[in-house]
Amino acid sequence: MQPPVSTNAANDMDIIRQALAWIDDGFGVALATVIETWGSAPRPTGSQVVINSDSAFAGSVSGGCIEGEVVTEAHGVIRDRAAKILEFQVSDETASSAGLACGGKVRVLVSAVTDDSRKTLDQLVQLNNKKTPTALIYDLQSGVPTLQSTDVSPAVQVRINSDKSGMVEEPDGTPVFARIYNPPLRLLIVGAVHIAQSLSLLGHQADYDVTVIDPRDTWGTAERFPGIRIDKRWPSTALEDLEPDRTTAVVTLSHDAKLDDPAFMVALKSEAFYIGALGSRKTHAKRVDRLTEAGLSDQEISRIQAPVGLDIGANTPFEIALSIMGQIIEAHRRR
Q1: Cis omega (within 30 of 0) on the bond before 307?
Q2: Which residues contact 319 (CB under 8 A, 6 or more apart)?
Q3: Class of the 186-334 domain?
Q4: Could you read off the pLDDT of 24-41 as tens digits, one per residue?
Q5: Phi, psi dihedral angles at 37 (to 5 degrees)
Q6: Cα distance between residue 47 and residue 148, in whole Å
Q7: In the beta sheet, which residues pair with residue 180?
C-alpha cells in the first residue's frame, strides 16, 4: 500500500467532483464525513474527505491528526462496499498530539461510493450547477445518501436556511445526517480599483462567486482581474439583472458617486446580507445626503457599512481588502 497522498480540493463540490473523477479513472472511492463534534474540534460538522483505493485523498476532517486512520479505515470500507462510523476522543492532556486545542470528540461516517450513490452524487453536481439548495441525507447504517432538494422536510429546510450540516430525524424518528450543499455565496464588487483586485481574489479563495462591475474599459480587464468575472454594464443595470439576494454581499469601491450611487439604489432595496462602501466618514455623510435626496429611507441607508471593513488599522490595498472580507464573513456568520 502506498502512503497517503493529499490532493487539493478548493471547496465542498470539488470534493464531490474529485470522487466522481476517481471513479471514472477506475478507483474505488469512499467519502468520510464529520457527523458530530464535541468540545474543541478542528473542523466543523459536515467537513469531508474523499479517499481512493490508492490512498490518495482530498479534503479534510481534522487538522491532519486523524486523516491517516480515516484513510486506513476507508480501504476496508471500499473493499466491503460498506459504511463505518469512527469515533475519536482525546483528553486535554493528549489533545495537542491529536490536533484538538482543548480535547474533544469527533464522529466520522466513512462510506463507500457505490453505483447507486455515484448516481446520487452526479445528480448533486447537476443541482449545484443550477444553484439549487440541496441536502445529501446519509443513512447512518448503510452510509447510502439520498437527495432532498425540491421536496425538503421541515428539519432539513432549517439546516438549509442556516447553511449548517448536522443530525436530523426522519418522520419516523430515525436519526440521519444532513449534509447541506447551498449555492456559493456571491460577492458583487462595484469599481475595478486596486483594492478590488485583492478583494476579488480573497472572495474567490473564500469560495464566493465573485463579479467585478465597472463600465470603464481600461479598469475592468482580464489582465487586471485574471480568472474573475467582469461585468462592464452600468452598475444599476448589472445589479438589477444579478438580483442581489440573501446570499449576496455588495461592496462599492469606485469612490465615484456616478458609479456607486446607482448601485446603492438597487442594493439597498434588495435582501443582500452585506452592503459596504469605501470612503471616510465625511465622504459617507455626503453619500447619505445624496441617497436621502434620491428617496431612500434612513432605515435603508443605515444598512451601509461605511467606512467599509473591520477596524484592523488597514493601510495598504491588500489590508483594506482583508478587512472588508473579514467583515463580510462576520456578517454572514452572525446574521
Answers
A1: yes
A2: 312, 313
A3: alpha beta
A4: 999 999 999 999 987 666
A5: -140, 150
A6: 19
A7: 135
Q: Which residue has the cell 456607486?
A: 260
Instruction: Order across the sheet with 134-139: list the strands.
Output: 145-148, 134-139, 175-181, 166-169
The bridge status of strand 304-305 relative to strand 274-277 is parallel
Asked whether 34 and 178 are in contact (CB, 8 A), the reply is: no
Contact 179, 145 (CB under 8 A): yes
Q: What is the largest CA-CA distance in the chain?
A: 71
The CA-atom distances, in angstroms, between 277 and each of 203, 214, 254 are 16, 15, 9
Sheet holding 186-190, edge to edge: 229-231, 209-213, 186-190, 248-252, 274-277, 304-305
**Taking the CB of residue 218, how many other CB atoms lie within 10 A of it?**
8
Tens of pLDDT, residues 260-318 = 999 999 999 999 999 999 999 999 999 999 999 999 999 999 999 999 999 999 999 99
**Per-residue b/e over 235-266, b at no fewer than 16 CB within 10 Å?**
bbebbbebebeebbbbbbbbeebebbbbbbbb
In the chain, % helix, strand, coil (3-state, to 5) comes to 35, 25, 40
Tell me how long the chain is: 335
**Could you tell me if residue 238 is left (phi over 0), alpha (psi between -120 and 50 degrees) or otherwise beta?**
alpha
pLDDT in tens, 200-223: 999 999 989 999 999 998 999 999
Q: Which three cell numbers stand for residue 252?
A: 462599492
Closest by CA position to 71, among listed 50, 100, 46: 50
For cell 466522481, name the residue: 20
**Cα(81)–Cα(239) distance, integer angstroms:** 48
Domain segments of the chain as ranges: 5-112, 117-181, 186-334
